[in-house]
Records
---
Amino acid sequence: MVAEDNLLNQKIVNFILQKQHATIANAINGQQAIDCLAQGDFDIILMDLQMPEMDGYTAAKYIRNNMHLQLPIVAVTASISDAELNESINCGMNAYISKPFDPDSLCDTILNLVKETKCKI
């Protein structure tokens, strides 16, 4: 799932992932991401931190604490400070990617996190 309010960024990520034959669901805010999770099974979430209605931090906390889901959540942000990185980890996110990102790095991060999670199950 790609949780991103900027439609151009969403299209870029979708294009990269579709080239890897991924099936993608999109959400434009944290609440939509939570609603999608309640209706389907996902391997990973790419979560923008700054979104309207519900930001990525709040959504990640809800996913971990209320839904008790352990799928990987990757923080996606334009720039990440040490404070943002710490907050992301405290909210239950597994990794982060800074925008703009290298497509190969994005795919490697996703594959490593999904593989690690699938091996634990």
---
Amino acid sequence: MDSVVRVLLRVMPPIDRLLLTVSGGRFGSAPGRTLLLVTTGARSGQRRETPLFFVRDGARLVLIASKGGSRSHPDWYRNLRAHPECEVVLDGGTWRYRARDAAGAERERLWRLACDAYAGYQAYAERARPREIPVVVLESAA
């Protein structure tokens, strides 16, 4: 993984976590594109907060489990696999969602949507090979 990406993966999450928490999900490093995902730890059962870039697909939110092109899945993704119920802090509120992986044609469409919003995902996909980067769909659980 590129050293700049490594540094950003260490430096930006704490900054985004603080900005998103203080602003109720209104402001992150990429305003309008960053949310605070609240998951339950897969092994610990503890509350975990992760700032993430997202795209909208109608009422659904789409997350890309890229981990900057790492060959392993991010912890937040493993948490959602174990406990798909989650919360999202966004736009001044906290919302309940249920996560699932996109597959087939849906995955391809949502991957293209995410790549249109952030071209860096293509480079991440190349670096992550042979791992296919998961596309996660969050649907309202309200």
---
Amino acid sequence: MSHQGLERRRTPRVTLEGQQEFRLARRVRVRVVDISAGGALLVAEERLPVGTVGRLQVSLGGNQFEGQLQVKREQAAAGQGHLIGGVLTSSQPRHQEALDHFLRRAGN
């Protein structure tokens, strides 16, 4: 996922800190690089093929967010694992409100 070329995101992303999870039929530890209203960029220890769907759980400024994320792009990152670009496809209203609140506070 090169940072060169045409930007396709519709909304800006915000960098996160702390521990996050992306759940499949098994748990996969990830680091969320950034998140937006429509998706997230993750670093995973293992490959997650395009089309994979799982549950992303993160703490957003003290509020829990959980939503379904579908992998749209995957690329090996030298020494860092795998870069995963995903789109958020669904979340419960309370989780969506937590994400929206977090993004507003972050200035996006």
